[in-house]
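wait is this the right file?? whatever heres the structure
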């Protein structure tokens, strides 16, 4: 068995260079690779192209990279809760490629499966389709979308073993699942790192062959993106 453990986030992202394309798992603040994002901020990487569902919030997760202007281009499906993301997009400080959420997920999954491109009806007749090849199938127009070509994919799992097998928990499966194995190198940070054989084979979501580096993260904050509570008695 290949031992894919690295010491920490700093070692895991040590060879990421300025200007590279990075996939980052998570949905809002759920299931984001907090340790690796913080390590990228500390390293001072610049001119990055980041692929993620969104950029979280201003002072946490990808928002920390945005705050220091380390992201040159953001490929996402949602501007959402990040005022700095919105500001940089509207002022032209950062290039933004907004992609329908299902298409974003499929571009990840296609890369994971080794499929170079696919047709989808989503976005036909809108700005999303501008400059793209179109084709009719069964009387309905589709646009050609290309799979992502990323240098690194960074995901966060609940449990993993040192050969790279991963188990995600609940909603944290979201974009972590299709991004694992969808880049040249996949880095996984996990809440709990165990010995091979300790994970139930029937519960493994991503096999170790799709992961090149793994480490046990620490100090996860697991913030809530927006707290909404009903008053007692309602």
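ok assuming it is, sequence goes like this
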């Amino acid at each position: 068995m290949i031992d894919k453990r690295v010491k920490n986030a700093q070692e895991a992202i040590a060879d990421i260079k300025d200007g590279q394309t990075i996939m980052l798992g998570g949905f809002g603040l759920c299931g984001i690779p907090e340790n690796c994002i913080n390590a990228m901020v500390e390293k001072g990487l610049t001119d990055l192209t980041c692929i993620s569902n969104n950029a979280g919030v201003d002072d946490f997760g990808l928002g920390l990279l945005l705050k220091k202007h380390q992201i040159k281009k953001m490929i996402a499906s949602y501007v959402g809760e990040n005022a700095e993301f919105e500001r940089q997009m509207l002022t032209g400080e950062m290039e933004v490629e907004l992609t329908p959420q299902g298409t974003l997920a499929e571009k990840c999954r296609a890369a994971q499966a080794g499929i170079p491109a696919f047709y989808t009806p989503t976005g036909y007749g809108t700005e999303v389709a501008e400059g793209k090849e179109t084709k009719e199938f069964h009387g309905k127009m589709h646009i050609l979308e290309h799979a992502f070509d990323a240098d690194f994919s960074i995901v966060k799992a609940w449990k993993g073993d040192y050969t790279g097998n991963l188990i995600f928990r609940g909603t944290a499966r979201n974009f972590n699942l299709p991004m694992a194995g969808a880049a040249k190198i996949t880095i996984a940070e996990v809440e709990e790192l165990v010995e091979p054989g300790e994970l139930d084979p029937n519960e493994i979501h991503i096999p170790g062959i799709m992961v090149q580096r793994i480490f046990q993260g620490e100090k996860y904050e697991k913030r809530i993106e927006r707290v909404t509570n009903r008053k007692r008695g309602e």
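The two ends are 56 Å apart (CA to CA). so i think its the right one actually
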